[in-house]
Design brief:
The chain contains 16 helices and 8 strands. The protein has 3 domains: about 45 residues; about 60 residues, no CATH class; about 210 residues, MetI-like (MetI-like fold, Orthogonal Bundle), CATH 1.10.3720. About 25% of the residues are buried. β5 and β6 form a beta hairpin. α4 packs across α15 and α6 crosses α9. The strands form 2 sheets. Strands 2, 3, 4, 5, 6 and 7 form a 6-stranded antiparallel β-sheet that branches. Strands 1-8 form a two-stranded antiparallel ribbon. It is α+β, with helices and mostly antiparallel strands and about 350 residues long.
Amino acid sequence: MSRVTRFLSRRSGRNGPDLTDWLTYAYLFVGILVMFGPVAWLVLSSFKTQAGLIEFPPTLLPLSPVEVEVEGHDSPLPLFDVTMPDGSTRRMAQVRRIGLEAQMVDPEAPGEIVRVPVGDRTEVRSLRLQLSNYTEPLQRFNFLTYLKNSVIVTMVATLITLIINSMAAFALSKYRFRGRNAVFLVILGTLMIPLSVILVPVYLVITQIGWVNNLWGVIIPGAATPTGVFLLRQYMLTIPDQLIDAARIDGASEWRIYWQVVMPLAAPALAVLAIFSVMWRWNDFLWPLIVLTRSEYFTLQVGLNAFQGELNVQWHYVLAMTVLTLLPITLVFSFLQRFITTGIASTGVKG
């Protein structure tokens, strides 16, 4: 906290903040607003009711109408602040609305009905969190099943991605063989192939293997990624070859060199790739949607479609479940974010 305070208290001018300081603070404020504004809106909107999400003008906070029990009425009535003809304001409950006229009663004296124009009343609202947005989907939909499938796919796919990509990167960075650079360029060239081009061939292969409606059909096709190979190879180039030569002189096998020498030194780059892989697999929608057709195998992103009706989308449930799907990504990033700067900064430096 003291570092943040010292950073924010820095000044370019001697006698106080100058134009540069104000421009810096404005830039930081706009950046924070652009980055975290949509997230804040998502979280706050997830506590709104279905009616609160579609109201205009929209509100940032989850505000709900205040209702009171009135004698002689079976259901609670909404409260309004009514501007009276003499200019005073009274808090009254609305019995009904007929066209441009509203029938109001005083909650403490409900015997007299007062008719007022609808433009002379303001709805009384208060902050109210709609916690049922989070509890009801857990009861009505197989959310826990979707969560379990997403966790399995993400963890297993990330582990396989780290192993396969690190092996390829180790070979391309520490072994000398003819065509090494050509193989690396071919791997990078696959980045230019869009998913739509290979979608049908990969699906046919998965069908022949029998992995349709199987989580392995979601995990295996994207296990080897050219981005991961590039990231790890560039980082492994910074590891001195003398360490590997010394290990070979000591009698270490190639597998032991890879597992006990190279992998620990490449931990920052592996952490960065792990973050990328978790985000890719956790947020993947198109491929699981094609491979998985049975609800018991749905991942979270595919399962969120279950909250959409034929004519009415239940946005309050969708937003609440979207917030829950962001929590694992946030936790992974919070634990591994310290490796991002080191890992990415070192991938372009050749030792």
